[in-house]
Amino acid sequence: MALEKLNRESLNNALTPAAQPLQRRLPNEELKVLGVVLEKTLRRWPSQENADTIAEFLTDFEQLTLKYSLRRVQEALNALRINPEQKFFPKPDEVAEEIERQRQSRQLDAMTDATVDYTAQMGQARREHIEFMQSQGYVQVNGRWEQIGQEELAQ
After folding, report:
1. What are the CA-CA distances from residue 1 to residues 6, 7, 11, 12 (Å)?
2. Cβ of 130: how many Cβ atoms within 10 Å?
3. Which of 12, 84, 102, 92 is nearest to 55 (CA)?
4. What are the E-state strand segments in 76-137?
5. Contact at 8 Å (CB) between 94 and 76?
6. What is the per-residue pLDDT across 27-73, written as a single tens digit (0 to 9) for each?
7. CA distance 79 to 134
């Protein structure tokens, strides 16, 4: 009976959902760096009252850092600091939008670079093909390859 009660209690405790979900946390060193970055950013708008919201923002910025990386959050904050349209301390959702905008820009740059590389490679391959075909006695006539007769090669 006691064993059955113990097992039932253990099972009930195991199945009971936690009051609050556990949140991942940044390592202390990264959290300190994030705090310094936010403090520097905060100084950009000295007349804005942020004392009440900065503690809440810190949690949100910590989650952004976990999602994207400290470097990406810093890059986004730096971009927003010098954006002439940014009139107030950037909210976490604005920082997330900036991170996504930068990500899309990097992806577009990578695709452009790949296209340029591909085009250069295709151009080189085309030149090599033309040289090969010519070395085999072919010429291009109206977009088609035609073999030159031996008498034409001698000329």
Report:
1. 9, 10, 15, 16
2. 14
3. 92
4. none
5. no
6. 999 999 998 998 888 888 877 776 677 778 889 999 999 999 999 99
7. 54
**Token digits for 40?**
């520097």
Q: Which residues pair with 145 in a beta bridge?
A: 140
Whole-angstrom distance, CA of residue 77 vs CA of residue 38: 8
Which structure tokens are listed for 109? 């740059």
Q: Give 76 or 52, the one with higher predicted confidence.
A: 76
Hunting for tokens 């920082």 — which residue is that? 95
Cβ neighbours around 83 below 10 Å, total:
12
Cα angle for residues 36, 58, 94 (degrees, 5° grid): 100
The Cα-based distances of 60 to 23, 38, 53, 73, 110 in angstroms read: 11, 12, 11, 11, 30
Q: β-pairing, 138-141 with 144-147?
A: antiparallel
The alpha-carbon radius of gyration of the chain (Å, integer) is: 32
Three-class DSSP category at 106: helix
- The mean predicted confidence, pLDDT, of the chain is 81
Average pLDDT over residues 120-144: 84
42 CB contacts (<8 Å, ≥6 apart)? 50, 54, 89
